[in-house]
Amino acid sequence: MHVHRPKTIVVGLDGSPASRGAFEQAMILAASLRGRLVAVAVAPALGGLERIGRERERRELLRPFEEALEAAGEAASKAGLPLKKVLEAGEAFERLVDAAEGEEASLVVLGDARRAYMERILLGRNVAKVIGYSPCDVLLVPERTKLDFTKVVTAVDGSKQSMAAAGRAIGLCAAYAGSLDVVAVLDVPVDRHLIYGIFEDIKRRALVATGAVAKAAKERDVPCEVTILEGSPDRAIAAHAAKVGAGCLVLGSYGKSGLRRLLLGSVAERVLALSSCPVLVVKAAPGDADAVPLDEET
To answer: Membrane-spanning residues where (predicted)?
Structure first.
């Protein structure tokens, strides 16, 4: 297993405090990994304003996004970091994904404004689309939070996606001298508790998955704790991350094929809406070198 080091980091900017905070965290990450930063600001579609002689309106629409890029450029310059600035117009998620693909990015960073839970669910659909279509991992940074890999939480359910996320979490802990808390949530409806063997089988699979992660962490000399929880997975995971003071929560994604599931209210989307710490969503590819092997005999 190797340490996953982002080479090019694409950051979405819109001039909001949340996106400025995300850019600050992206700069710190780029500096520590010697990565390359690309700031992308996406203005609303201009609707042909330049073609109908409404230049003033067009400039007014673009100004906040130009100012966001200018501020990012000044911050990067002070930090001694090279920065490529990109101004686009159109659908934000499409332009961000296009930029990630064009720049061959290995990480997309987005800010997340503090809102009520339902607002974050409804307004976060663009974020869900970026995650769904992104060719690389996506880091969501809630407003006024700081990324910290010294205490990382990851959640596993035995799927290839979650085991890849766990492997990424181990690599980050190894690189930043951090500790890992691996969580599995037993989500069994009350009526199914009565069916012989259902609960025990789910618990066994959870122990296999968490045991495999603990074994892989030990091989990398990463301190690791295993926590088995019961209840609603999204709330249990988010609450546990807050309880232990996690500086980053690492989750797996089902990729483009799982976009419909993500948009219809998946566990990952609800965790994103509930989390009080930065969330790294890992886009696992077949044969991902970071993935923790799942040994049924563990």
So the answer is: none
> Which string of b and e fits 217-243 if b means at least 16 CB within 10 Å?
beebebebebbebeeebbebbbbbbee
Q: At what angle do helices 198-219 and 160-175 cross, to 10 degrees?
A: 30
Delineate the domains of the chain, giving CATH numbers in brackets: 8-142 (3.40.50.620), 151-283 (3.40.50.620)
The predicted-structure confidence for 50-76, as pLDDT tens digits, reads as follows 555 567 777 888 899 999 999 999 999
Q: What is the 3-state secondary structure (H, E, C) of 141-208?
A: EECCCCCCCCEEEEECCCCHHHHHHHHHHHHHHHHCCCEEEEEEEECCCHHHHCCCCHHHHHHHHHHH
Which residues 6+ apart lie within 8 Å of 39 measured at CB? 11, 13, 23, 68, 69, 72, 73, 76, 83, 84, 85, 86
pLDDT digits (tens, 9 = 90+) for 131-185: 889 999 999 999 999 999 999 999 999 988 899 999 999 999 999 999 999 999 9
SS3 18: helix
Give the dihedral sign, CA 207/213/217/219: positive
Three-class secondary structure of residue 89 per DSSP: strand
Residue type, 95: R
From the list 126, 125, 112, 128, the residue with the least C-alpha distance to 42 is 126
Q: pTM of the entire structure? A: 0.89
Query: Closest Cα to residue 4, out of 33, 26, 24?
Result: 33
Cα distance from N-terminal residue to C-terminal residue, the chain: 18
Amino acid at 140: L
- The answer to whether residue 2 scores a pLDDT higher than 50 is no
